[in-house]
Amino acid sequence: MAVLNLTDALQERVLLLDGAMGTQIFAHRPNIDDYGGAQFDGCVELLNERRSTWIQGIHENYFRAGADAVETNTFGCNAVVLAEFGLEHRVFDLNVQAVRIARQVAESFNERKWVIGSVGPGTKLLTLLHIDYPTLYSSYLEQMRGLISGGADAVLIETAQDLGQIKVAVRAARQAMKELRKKIPIWVQMTIETNGTMLVGSDVQAALAAIEMLGVDVIGMNCATGPDEMRPHLAYLCEAAPMAVSCLPNAGLPENRNGQTYYPLDPSAFAQRVADIGKDFGLNILGGCCGTTPDHIRALADIRGSLNAPVRPGRYERSVSSLYNSVSLSLEPRPLYVGERTNANGSKAFRDALAKDDFDAMVEIAKEQTKEGAHILDVCVAYVSRDEKRDMVEFIKRLVTQVNIPLMIDSTEVAVIEAALQHAPGKCIVNSINFEDGDEKPRRVLELCKEYGAAVVALTIDEQGMAKTCADKMRIADRLYQLVVGEFGFAPEDLIIDPLTFTLGSGESEWRSSAVETLNSIEELQRRYPRVRTILGLSNVSFGLKPWPRQILNSLMLYHAVQRGLGLAILNASKILPVARISSEHRKLFEALLFNDRQTFPDPLRDILTLFAESSLKVAAAAADADSPIEEKLKNDIIDGRKTQIAAHALEALQTHSALHIINEILLDGMKVVGERFGSGQMQLPFVLESAEAMKAAVKVLEPHIEKKDGYRKGRIILATVKGDVHDIGKNLVEIILSNNGFEVLNLGIKQPIEAIVETYRKQGADAIGLSGLLVKSTVIMKENLEYMAAHGFDTPVILGGAALTRAFVEKECQSVYRGPVFYAEDAFSGLSLMEKICSGGVPELLAERHARWGASSATGPASEVNISSSSSRVTPPTGIVVKRRGESVVALDAHGQSSWVRRDVVVPEPPFWGVRKQEHSLSELFEYLDEFALVRSRWGFTQGQLSDAEFEKVVQEKALPTLERLKKRIADESLLKPAALYGYFPACSRNGNEVVVYSPESARAANAEEREVVARFVFPRQSAGRRLCISDFLVHESSGKTDVLALQLVTMGHVASEKSKAEYEQNQFSEYFFLHGLSTELTEAYAEFLHAQIRRELGIHARDAAAKRALFSQGYQGSRYSFGYPACPDMELNEPLLRLLGSEAIGVSLSESHQMVPEQSTSAIVVHHPQARYFAT
Amino acid sequence: MSSQQRALVTFVIDDLDVEVPSNTRLTDIVEASGADITFGCRNGTCGTCRVRILEGMENLSPATAEERDFLAALNSPSEERLGCQFRVCGNVVIDYIGS
Questions:
Q1: Residue A1052 in contact with residue A1159, Cβ under 8 Å?
Q2: pLDDT tens-digit profile of A348-392?
Q3: CA A11, CA A496: separation in Å to the nearest integer?
Q4: Could you give the CA distance from residue A935 to residue B46 in angstroms, rounded to a whole number?
């Protein structure tokens, strides 16, 4: 047989490694004699010398079992571990001996066998600061020297728990190879715990980003878990990694049995699971870790023939990473925000903290930026007269565990850059290189980037200075590309070119076209080098201008740069305006400056300086300028929702106005504008909530200055969600809008019986009572409440609001049973305008409007004529709708009383099991099924209204989607959602027309209906016209002698989400409350959709699933999923048998007395497979 | 358009003709006549009420931005509309896609 080297062998076949070493050693029951003294007890590395025949035997057994390669007994053979036995001086020769033992056994075989030098993690974690960098590095260096000198065919850095440690070990291996002039492959295997991350918290994506940059030959996993737990991580690695992938699991998840560690997988079960991973995703190296034996390896050898050496697609999207997670350099929507405030040159607060050695305050500034939406953090601690290297190391050490976004190391000093890279475990970006002093320094920095695995920012500066024209920028960019990509072999994505931007604020003619040149160069760079990324230090463009014009200019520069292809922007994310918020006059003027267009504005800079020097109304219309009067500032604080500065402005205004005047005349005037803009569709609900938060913040500081507490209240309303309804959000939005527009709100909460509402009214009085509810059933309750109030002699105005209501139902049917006026509020602002009128004698006017709409049918009902018998919510039609002809061809009901429109010849699919199973899924899987369209437009209320397409797109891109990204992170960081699910398959039939009977799982095979055990019955309503459908029609009839399959499902996001969003509400974080509530609710739907897709796959009816998610969400599949409370099955009480069948307490879901699920973020459904089953209304 | 003008709405699946004042919402027509069309979210984001306009597309109010974006994302053919989003201003023949 031809002698192959290891790398070639990996191309040709799947390579088999050995199994556990420790387990085999301890089978010999080593005693103190074996170790050579009590002080060496447990030092298995010493057995290489003292019991070399044991080690030989273990290697031989693995080779005989079919292993192509064995790992040396050197797992802990480094200075840090051996020092615990006083043996740190033996590192080199023990490693050499261990390799030689394995080598000797390998060479006794006729076939080519290899020896892999095992390098374990040691006992101390670098990233958690258990050990310092130089000590760990020299510990590894000596071990690597021994392994390579001994003749290992590769080194395997294994059981790695810390990305920092991997980087040190790889660097030590390269150094040892350089010294010994011998190059062997470097393999890396990480250990991912059952929680899905490495011990220090890195996920597999973050690990790949960091490790891929180190240029190792193999990436893989070993230890901690069995093959099943490794599977999802290996699926990612196999898809993404461009290098070979290894898989060395434990023999299952270790269990504790009678005080002994027990590994549950026997050889064939183990091999089967590893083989499945290999078949499904493609593995290059197989083997075992703890609990595996030569028999496990033999079983792997038996199945190896069925696996082919895969070609790695390497679909890794190039990223940078922190210790915890990765950020794609191609993230859409662009740009990636690079936070600029952890920079001693850019932020005074940061510089002051640094001057005081207050590293905790510096970390706080870093955290603030992550909250503001930064994707990457620029870190610069260069400050005259301080030790930059020390400051950098101290800061980075704290940052890496406390901040979860990747770092951009910003320094001009090579030594500082190296120190920073040693202490940042993820893949960083180094900022920056240039050719100012030729190419020697950039080469040194690039060497470091290669050695420590970092991307690089390169500026278009050369020996002639900073490039101003597009042509010069491109000339230097070509040179940078040649050096970084051509010579140093960086992936183009890891080169980030900064084409420089200069201030337009100086007015010097030399710089007037500089922004145009920069924008053109971004476009040209993306055209010439589509994979290279571009970056701008954005705020340079407006240097010298006042803060507000700076924001406008920066925002417009960013907007245009992104249009041209900009990938990253260094900026303060909280100071970027959506372009839609810039008035069109300002936009024209600032764009004239940006594009050096002197046609319309002969001197745009002068116009800008003049405009912002005056406190003109024009300025105020866009936002408060530093120079505008305090009244305008306050009003604009409200309109723009600036809650951070409004308190200070409110206090300032107190010097000239009374608190009441400020609230009633200034702040409420701002809220009025907000209401008008919302009403006319210029402003979306989330921005309105920000305004309300600002209002709340201002009132909070003003309230102590109000003498008469009630003096500024326009009126009072009692608000409640009606009995049996748990929906909070609509009512709370009304409270936010009313209470921040000068009304006092007594918010009684959810599930309020009318008796409690009336009691509050009796005690405290109110100008109106507001009833809210989401459910169809709640509309009935509202009418009953009105009947109750009428019977008890009330005539207080009542306002009804809720999704299931219609104007006609409220103004006619509900009004007919109540003597006082009943009004319909379709949203919070119409509730506000109703309250304004009610509290200012406007009721007759409102009733007149209504009379004009409906005529006499909307008259208030006399209190004496209470109609208690009918409580149907069927809406009285608006006038003038006349049914002209109802066709003859009404669908007939068959002998069972079921719709003859439904086909009866449908094949019943076979479920994979009968009964119930519990499942838990990761949030990332669920986000795949998130209906972003519904989330953004419906749950979050971002509707286009009067905005142009471009303006609306801007809102989506700059507010909605970044909010989604931020919340995704927040949910993960704070573990806000705990998804869990139950689902199951039950035999079922239809019976007596409208009934579905569900049998016990054991009854599945019983042909005779009498032998089946009925465990639940569901009775559904039937359409009175049209197709005359009822859900029961979609299941086979009991009389057929067959049974059908009914799937049941229940998903929940857990309690934390509700509690957390409630806390946000109580702390007046209205917009965050609203966003969080909307997202968690929509994610619950996503989970239901996800589980339903799984059920269709398991039933084998997924062939008709729509490929596009959008279509899938619009019932693009076979069968239907019905949730109780919706039109086809409005009866919420059916949740009771459903949750009982599923055993809902297993995932902590229970029912309220009104049959709604607790926690609120839960949803249940029955799933039918019939191809004609769709949503329908009864 | 004068409020006196009337329009005839034909629902194919029900074999049903309904006469309505011009500029009436389809939701109101369906609720008043009991036609077999199901509405979900009623704000143009769920797609439950998708209908096919067999005749009279020109007699419907233009699509809102939400409706346009929703249908575009679905690659819906040009004869489809979201029932919850339009008003009827002239004669129209409607088929429900949900069936």
A1: yes
A2: 899 999 999 999 899 989 988 888 888 999 999 998 888 999 999
A3: 33
A4: 11
Q: What is the pLDDT of residues A730-767, one digit of tens each?
A: 888 888 889 888 899 999 988 899 999 999 999 888 99
Whether the predicted pLDDT of A1141 surpasses 50: yes
Q: Do A937 and B45 count as a contact with CB atoms less than 8 A apart?
A: yes
> In this prediction, does ipTM exceed 0.90?
no
Q: Which residues contact A117 (CB under 8 A, 6 or more apart)?
A: A71, A72, A74, A95, A99, A144, A147, A148, A150, A152, A154, A155, A156
CA dihedral A759, A764, A768, A772 (to 10 degrees): -50
> pLDDT class for B42, splitting at 50, 70, 90?
confident
pLDDT the model gives residue A842: 85
Question: Which member of B17, B64, B74 has the closest CB to residue A885?
Answer: B17
Query: What does pTM read for this prediction?
Result: 0.54
Distance from CA of B98 to the nearest CA of A (A): 6
CA distances from A231 to A236, A274, A310, A631, A875 (A): 9, 9, 17, 62, 55
- Write out pLDDT tens, residues A228-275: 999 999 999 999 999 999 999 999 998 878 778 889 999 999 999 999
Mean pLDDT lowest among A440-454, A617-631, A1015-1029: A617-631
Q: Could you identify the residue written with the tokens 């998903």?
A: A1051
Residue A620 has pLDDT above 60, yes or no: no
Which of A827, A873, A876, A884 has the most B C-beta neighbours within 10 Å, making it the best mutation to test the interface with B?
Answer: A884
DSSP string, A657-669: S-HHHIIIIIIHH
Which chain A residues are Cβ-neighbours of B98 within 8 angstroms?
1115, 1174-1176
Tell whether the model's pLDDT for residue A175 goes beyond 90: yes
Dist CA A1109 CA A1171 (whole Å): 19
- Residue A624 identity (one-letter amino acid): A
- Decide if B98 and A1176 are in contact by the 8 Å CB cutoff: yes
| Token pair in block for residue A799 | 């306002």
Cβ atoms A526, A564 nearer than 8 A? yes
Q: Is A987 helix (H, G, I), strand (E, B) or coil?
A: strand
Phi, psi of A918 (to 5 degrees): -100, 145
Q: End-to-end CA distance of chain A: give it in Å, rounded.
A: 76
| Strands A1014-1019 and A1044-1052, bridge-based pairing | unpaired
Cα dihedral A481, A482, A483, A484 in deg (nearest 10): 40
Count of CB atoms within 10 A of residue A256's CB? 8
Give the pairing type, strands A980-991 and A915-919: antiparallel
B45·A933 Cβ contact <8 A: yes
Q: How would you label B29-38 residue by residue, b for 16+ Cβ within 10 Å and e otherwise?
A: bbbbbbbbbb
Residue A228 CB partners (closer than 8 Å, separation 6+)? A252, A273
The residues with which B50 forms a beta bridge, in sequence order, are B82
Between A586-600, A641-655, B46-60, the lowest mean confidence (pLDDT) is in: A641-655
**DSSP structure class, residue A90:** G
* Tokens 């055990």, located at residue: A1013
Tell me if B23 sits within 8 A of A891, measured CB to CB. Answer: no
Give A708's DSSP letter. S
- Using the predicted structure, report yes or no on whether residue A867 has a pLDDT greater than 70: no
- Neighbour tally for A851: CB within 10 Å: 14
Which tops the pLDDT comparison, A881 or A1048? A1048
Distance from CA of A546 to the nearest CA of B (A): 38
Residue B47 and residue A806: Cβ atoms within 8 Å? Answer: no
Tell me the average pLDDT of chain A: 89
Cβ within 8 Å of residue A1016, ≥6 positions away: A997, A998, A1137, A1138, A1140, A1141
- Angle (CA) A448 A453 A459, round 5°: 60
